[in-house]
Amino acid sequence: MSAPLLQLREVGKNFGGVQAVRGLSFSVQRGQVLGLIGPNGSGKSTSVNLISGTLPVSCGAIEFDGQSVNDLPISARVPLGLARTFQTTSLFPEFSVHNQVLAACHSRFRSAPWAAVFRLPAARREETLQQERADEILAFVGLGDVAQELASSLSSVQQRLLMIATALASEPALVLLDEPAAGMVAKERKELTGLIKRIQARGVAVLVIEHHMGLIMEVCERIVVLNFGQKIAEGTPAEIRTNPVVIDAYLGGAH
Ligand code: ADP
Ligand code: MG
Question: Does 181 reside within a domain?
């Protein structure tokens, strides 16, 4: 197997006396969809915050694309190809949907500021390219029809899709999705399932946290199971579904 895209080695996170994540090691391969599941409070969101750089690790190492990212803030991880969605709604509610994605395109691909000021040909060409990329990404996530609406006017489900579009705009190698199906009805979940598969088909790896087991079992190649901040199992959906330790964690009253 080739070198993993993301590697966690014995990662830990303490909040005061609470060990939210303990000795966590796992990896994500390029283009892989990996699920992170576990009962409430088991450390899933904390893990995503550590990987994205939203929180610093207390101990252990996180490597992305062969390089340690332990000391890099979130702003320095995005250009490496590590993108996440936030559970908050839109980043710039007063922006149109299109412009919000455009801003995210620019955050990664920026010509020199002076080139843009003087509207040099290179800057103009790049601007056109970014406009097209924003349109393509919006169509890709299914928001093509609402591109000119205000981001704040979207339904909560559409805002989630917009967050995914914003994450994809940075052309990541890995996207982190924390409970993307929250608040979705069955039809919307089915569409999201299709979208995650299409993200993978774009060559982008996905790390997804989700309570909805139907979605997890359908999209994930591998699943890591957390309980009380520790990994209790890892395997294919078929292995996880029948693992007695996992069944016990879910049925043992922790959930
Ligand atoms: P999950 O996403 O699996 O539901 P979390 O990662 O949100 O779990 O939380 C794991 C544990 O860490 C919980 O006990 C939670 O209360 C605690 N925790 C999470 N974030 C913080 C924080 N910022 N400060 C203190 N404790 C936190
Ligand atoms: Mg959570």
Answer: yes
